[in-house]
Amino acid sequence: MKFDKLVAAGNDFLLFNGIENHIEDYSKLALNTCNRHFGIGADGIMICEESSIADIKMIYYNSDGSQGEMCGNGIRCFAKYIYDYGIVNRSSISVETLAGVKYVDIQVNNFNKAEKIKVDMGYPIFEAEKIPMNLNKDRVVNEKINIDSREYEYSALLVGVPHVVIFVEDIKEIDINYIGKKIENHPTFPRKTNVNFIEINSRKNINIYTWERGAGRTLGCGTGSCASVVIGNILNKLDNTVEVTTEGGNITVELDENFKIYMLGGANHIASGILQIS
Ligand SMILES: N[C@@H](CCC[C@H](N)C(=O)O)C(=O)O
Fold first, then answer.
1. Its quaternary structure (predicted)?
2. How does pLDDT run across 39-50, given as a tens digit for each residue?
């Protein structure tokens, strides 16, 4: 079966055409192909399928074989894949995801290939119950969580997938592999969570380190970048338009006055190949 590898902000993905191929088990496909030693290597996979409510359906699985409702860097790669291969022949595309229909605008280069992609990410969800969390609160802002003997001040919200946002003075001092995994699996989050550590450079620029639910440490996270800007804005630490510096590249996040989120960034095609199915 043909695969393509794309990357956005250092978050790498394998894309498969589910319209042309019958794929038996997406979870197994993700586990096998994302493995960086025995597979191709990626943070997750996406499959395109026909949609009855949008131009196209995006199915997302993390590298551990779990399904994700949405992926911010992923949807930019997905849009590039769909546009560049002419699967949908328009530069404004609606994409069905498990987190609702997302609207994507593609800016093309001189070779008629997708270069910059703007995604209307919709509205964040703040109610603890819907994130979901074992808490009864309308907003989870500046709550406390204990990991081993240390207390962290965190905020949580749903931007398609659950996110925890923690502001720190120096992100390099955080043992994200250890703390990220602990918070991901903390009993407060019955469906686990993504975890973002943020260092503020100015009201318009932050650095972010992310630990992803289902994928572990990644170089960037689109939904995590959006979640972090929303919380930073609520706490009056950040403006409405923020450049998010991930370890794999920059993403611009814009909020309107009602917290509707727009995410803008690039996506690159790395390779195409044939997967041997045994
Ligand atoms: N890489 C992501 C998020 C992918 C989904 C996530 N790990 C989950 O299942 O919660 C992004 O760029 O948003």
1. Homodimer.
2. 999 999 999 999
Does 71 participate in catalysis according to the annotation? Answer: yes
pTM of the model: 0.96
* Residue located nearest, by CA, to atom 3 of ligand 1: 71
- Flag whether pLDDT at 278 surpasses 70: no
Is the Cβ–Cβ distance between 210 and 251 less than 8 Å?
A: no
ipTM, two decimals: 0.95
Spans of all domains in the chain: 2-122+265-274, 128-259
Which residues, at least 6 apart from 175, have a Cβ–Cβ distance to it below 8 Å?
none
Compute the average pLDDT of residues 229-249: 98
Q: Ligand 1 atom 2: the closest Cα is on which residue? A: 71
Atom of ligand 1 nearest to the CA of 69: 9
Would you call 244 exposed, middle or buried from its count of C-beta atoms within 10 A (0-12, 13-18, 19+)? Answer: buried
11 is in an annotated binding site: yes
- The atom of ligand 1 lying closest to the CA of 68 is 9
Which is nearest to 199 in space by CA: 231, 226, 166?
166
Q: Is 246 annotated as a binding-site member?
A: no
pLDDT category at 127 given cuts 50, 70, 90 is: very high
The finding on whether 74 has its CB within 6 A of some atom of ligand 1 is yes
- Helices 222-234 and 72-84, axial angle in degrees (round to 10): 130
Does any ligand 1 atom lie closer than 6 A to the CB of residue 155?
A: no
Please give the class, per CATH, of domain 128-259: alpha beta
State the DSSP string of 205-229: EEEEEEEETTTEEES--HHHHHHHH
Identical topology for domains 2-122+265-274 and 128-259 = yes
Annotated active-site residue 226? The verdict is no
Ligand 1 within 6 A of 12 CB?
A: no
- Calculate how far, in angstroms, residue 110's C-alpha sits from the geometric centre of ligand 1: 31
CATH superfamily of 2-122+265-274: Diaminopimelate Epimerase; Chain A, domain 1 (3.10.310.10)
Q: Compute the average pLDDT of residues 75-97.
A: 97
